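> example.struct
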């Protein structure tokens, strides 16, 4: 059974939603280097910071993260089923002298591009619209 990430709390309750968050974050972290940083951004969003990584390399890393989550099977014993999760991911690269708020805006634009197809990775570069 496959669900959108946000539906887990609504369908199975907050306890299982927390298990999903924990399991997904562990799967994502395993795909990153020790110098990378994965942070829960709130709700169902995470942010990953990949220092010294160009956009093409970041796309490959984040696609690997997306696939790792897609391949998870999270057992829900109460409902006797395995839950599958998919994520959509936006990738943006920090540019020299760029304000953090603009970087977040670029990442959000990339995320919305990815959400149009779901279970996808998308990038956003200055000048796209």
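> example.seq
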């Amino acid at each position: 059974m496959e669900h959108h990430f946000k539906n887990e709390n609504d369908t199975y309750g907050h306890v299982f939603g927390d298990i999903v968050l924990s399991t997904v974050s562990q799967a994502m972290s395993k795909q990153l280097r020790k110098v990378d940083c994965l942070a829960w951004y709130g709700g169902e969003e995470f942010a990953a910071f990949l220092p010294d990584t160009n956009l093409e390399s970041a796309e490959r890393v984040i696609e690997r993260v997306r696939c790792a989550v897609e391949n998870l099977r999270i057992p829900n014993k109460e409902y006797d089923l395995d839950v599958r999760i998919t994520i959509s991911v936006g990738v943006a690269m920090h540019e020299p002298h760029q304000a953090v708020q603009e970087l977040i805006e670029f990442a959000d634009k990339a995320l919305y591009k990815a959400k149009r197809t779901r279970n996808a990775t998308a990038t956003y570069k200055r000048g796209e619209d």
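> remarks
The domain at 2-88 is CATH 3.30.70.270 (Alpha-Beta Plaits).
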